Amino acid sequence: MIFTKTHQDEQQAVQFIKERSIEINQMVDLDVLIESIGNKRIVMLGEATHGTHEYYTWRSYISIQLIERKGFNFIAVEGDWPDCYRINRYIKGKAGTSALEILKTFDRWPTWMWANWEIAALTEWLNNYNKSLQYNQRIGFYGLDVYSLWDSLHAVREYLQKVDPQALTKAEEAFLCFEPYKNDEGTSYAYASKMVPDLCQEEVVGLLQEIRRKLPQYDSDEEVVFSTEQNALIAVNAEKYYRAMINGGPQSWNVRDSHMEETLERLLDFHGPDSKAIVWEHNTHIGDSRATDMTDEGMYNIGELARTRYPEKDVALVGFGSYEGTVIAGSSWGAPMKKMDLPEARDGSWEYLLHLADDSNKLLFMEDFRDTPFFDQRIGHRAVGVVYRPHYESYGNYVPTILPQRYDAFIYIDKSSALHPLHLAPHSHQMPDTYPFGL
């Protein structure tokens, strides 16, 4: 949906943007956002694409300020738990010698989402920052997603081999049940579960129950025990996800976002009653789905779940978007990543209106727009995934959105640039200028 009022209405909407937005010329201009967060417990930082440089560096700046000035305890991202847990162990001084060494092991498509120079810079900052802290105070980095079924099962097996050979039987049963389906991202399992609905459900549920029963007996590193339980939980929810995937509709999406919200809750509980979380995910996950047409389809997301579970004073949802530029993506699932043009936003979209106001980068506090005309309707809001075909953008890539209801704040970048993947030029070990505010 595009802006459907008259030209005069469009001009008035643009005038509101001019009057009520804050121009951003450099990252320090985002400090007003940091102060507005106050004592909130959960801050979710979105992105309109999975391959934009500024989304990563600006979220890094915001995250660092929240850690240093507001006492936030961890960053949780739209990534796989086993991969992100390796970053977590490195920044806490438990494994690895450099961010580059850790991130080079991220070989699951789309590799560029986390194996990039922008994340390498943030990872090194976190590692350096943590060195001055007691271990139980060190900042964490975790993955919220549900896709890592086989890596998670493998991690559980490795742990139980060391500490609980008796429970290993349960892990072996689950692994053997899934093994015939491990080469195609769960598609063959989804089809097989159509014929046998409870194909491997009993095995993964049994594994999780066994680990939870034995948790009090595990006396190794407390976080390693937590990670083992989390990997078993991923196996349970991934199995649900793959079964739901074959039926179409909203259920698989809802299983995934419910898992991410459950993981966030577990992390907050693990870090204590006063813990604070920073979440990095796509706008389609962190922006309240009730303000979009997703709700018409019966879909919900982690942003909506957080707003309904926690008091309003505890949650801040911050969206990101841009008008034009370049982006890293693939033309199909599993295709080689490449730098693509991000064309000018579609006429009548939120990005179009923001650009029409002027070509500056902007910060909008949504409470300043909730009483204005025309800002209470669903208008197209750009959303680009890891698969992107710019020439089809006129047919898709826009989520009808009531912007002031979807976010608490919105950061607009008029012209954005592509992310810097590590694996795009593996022979290159020189970090580009991705971290102008720190290292």
TrEMBL record:
It holds the Pfam family Erythro_esteras. It comes from the Bacteria. Signal peptide: none annotated. One of its GO terms (biological process) is response to antibiotic. CDD domains: Ere-like (cd14728). Gene3D superfamilies: EreA-like (biosynthetic domain), EreA-like, domain 2. This is Erythromycin esterase family protein. The lineage of its organism: Bacteria, Pseudomonadati, Bacteroidota, Chitinophagia, Chitinophagales.
